[in-house]
Amino acid sequence: MALDIDFAINVMYPAANGAYLIMNVPQPPLQLPPGFTLVGPIMADPAQAAHAMAQAQPDQQRIANSMVSESSIFGLIAWNAATKTAIVAIRGTKTIWDWIGDFDAAPVPWFPDPTLGLVHMGFQLVYEHICSNVRTLLKSGCQGVEQIWVTGHSLGGAVAILAAFDILKEVGLGVTPQLYTFAGPRAGAPDFAKNFDAGINVCYRIVNFMDVVPQVPLPPLYLHVGQEVLVHGGFRPLDVTYAHHLTTYLSGLQNLKPATSTAPPAPSPAATP
């Protein structure tokens, strides 16, 4: 399956953007991809993550604490009843530098099944805050689902990988998730990456030229999953965060489109990290 640029622009980009917007616009008129309605916000539950957090060192808890401090809403789940399609979209965090410098984070066993590989502890703790809510929303609000698309930007791109693997292995919907992520860092060790790729064969990691976030944590301790799609959305030599903005990823995707394309116009970008 080849990358569908129009699908990335008109469906996955607004979903990833909506994962940020829902923090401030939790109900309609939240802009969602055409044909989709909001099932609900993805809500963090610190009580659900308490046991895992208690096993972590303070520096490993920092990423999850940062996410919670910004908002208890970590993203959204949307549903298209006509196509029986669900979207799971997970946001990142404004405090990029609180976690991007954690190059030496030791991988730990994936909580649901330690035999399936090692993952980044900080990213796993973020997902522990929302895994129960993701499972509940999918099962209660997306009955009869036939397709599940998972997306996220920045830290949300890494958490989206863990979410997709959890949906595949633990949720029991009989659907293999598919991913389009933006600016995501590496989420797991080589054994996890191998098992992920064996189970999920549609995973596009969209990476903007000169964005540093997809380059961490460093190999060989961590490896990327899926297929990288390089875009050129712009960068500024004296502003290392510019190439990481979600809006530059929209520009990069638009630059991939043939000049003769007659696809519908992309949604207007909102201000996101």
Question: What is the CATH architecture term?
Answer: 3-Layer(aba) Sandwich
Instruction: Characterize the main sheet.
Output: 7 strands, mixed
Instruction: Please count the helical segments.
Output: 8
CATH superfamily caption: Alpha/Beta hydrolase fold, catalytic domain
CATH topology: Rossmann fold
Give the N-to-C terminal Cα separation: 30 Å
Helix coverage percent: 25-40%
> What is the radius of gyration computed over CA atoms, rounded to a whole number of angstroms?
17 Å
Which residues sit in consecutive blocks of at least 5 with pLDDT less than 50? none
**Which class in CATH terms?**
Alpha Beta
In spatial order, strands of the major sheet run 1-2-3-6-7-8-9
Order of helices and strands: HEHHEEHEEHEHEHEEH
Description:
The protein has 273 residues and is of the alpha/beta class. The chain has one domain (5-256): Rossmann fold. The protein is 37% helix and 18% strand. The protein has helices at 5-21, 46-54, 58-70, 97-100, 121-141, 155-171, 190-199, 246-256; strands at 37-43, 73-80, 85-90, 107-109, 118-120, 147-153, 178-182, 203-208, 227-231. A 7-stranded mixed sheet has the order 1-2-3-6-7-8-9, with helices on both faces. A two-stranded antiparallel ribbon has the order 4-5. β7 (178-182), α7 and β8 (203-208) form a beta-alpha-beta unit. α1 (5-21) runs antiparallel to α8 (246-256) and α5 (121-141) packs across α6. The radius of gyration is 17 Å and the shape is globular. The two termini are 30 Å apart. The mean pLDDT is 91.
